[in-house]
Design a protein that fits this description.
By secondary structure, this protein is an alpha+beta fold. The protein contains four helices and six strands. Strands 1-4-5 form a three-stranded antiparallel β-sheet. A three-stranded mixed β-sheet has the order 2-6-3, with no helix packed on it. The chain is elongated. InterPro entries: GrpE, GrpE_CC, GrpE_head. Homodimer.
Length: about 200
């Protein structure tokens, strides 16, 4: 009887030991509520970091797409507006260059009209011819003014190398030092720039 009791007790202890060995891995892999909450918080933090502080649960895909397209449209409109302004500026620059070039070519013609007006008698048979020359000259100078081309006022002014080209010097007690005494060839400005320097005679 004692041997049987001892054997039975030994078998029961063996079963308990084996049961503990089988159950031990299950206890190690089981996730506690605290661990699950920690993982959820970590995932939420990653989402907020990726998408900002917006409430992702309430976000609508359609709204996100609309916002993206709206942003692209605004960028495209801004780029087009910059292109338009740049094109207008380039167009204005090209127009100025063209107008300046044409005006430079017309200046010798205007000079010849001025010489013709001086040489043609205003009375007698040449009066009609002189009037015709004067009319054409006035039309050309009016067109120049409309384009921004204006003559440089130099006689009696102090000599300015930025505007005048001195080709002669004279002594004149009635004029001050470095004063333009006479204009030999009229100079012109195109807007804020010199189109042609005035050819002048400078006193003293």
């Amino acid at each position: 009887m004692k041997e049987k009791d001892l054997k039975r007790e030994h078998d029961e202890n063996k079963k308990v030991t084996e049961g503990e060995e089988l159950e031990e891995p299950v206890v190690e892999t089981e996730e506690t509520p605290e661990e699950a909450a920690a993982k959820a918080a970590a995932m939420e933090a990653e989402v907020e970091e990726a998408f900002g502080d917006e409430n992702i649960e309430k976000a609508d895909k359609k709204d996100i797409v609309i916002a993206d397209l709206t942003d692209r449209l605004k960028r495209s409109m801004a780029e087009f507006d910059n292109f338009r302004k740049r094109s207008e500026k380039e167009k204005a620059t090209m127009f100025d260059m063209g107008a300046r070039s044409v005006a430079e070519k017309l200046l010798p013609i205007v000079d010849n009209f001025e010489r013709a007006m001086t040489a043609t008698p205003a009375e007698g048979e040449g009066r009609a011819f002189a009037d015709g020359i004067a009319m054409i000259y006035n039309q050309m100078t009016k067109t120049f003014e409309d384009l921004g081309v204006k003559p440089i006022d130099c006689v009696g002014k102090e000599f300015d190398p930025n505007l005048h080209n001195a080709v002669m010097h004279i002594e004149d007690e009635n004029l001050g030092e470095n004063i333009v005494a006479e204009e030999l060839l009229k100079g012109y400005m195109y807007k804020d720039g010199v189109l042609r320097h005035s050819m002048v005679k400078v006193a003293n």
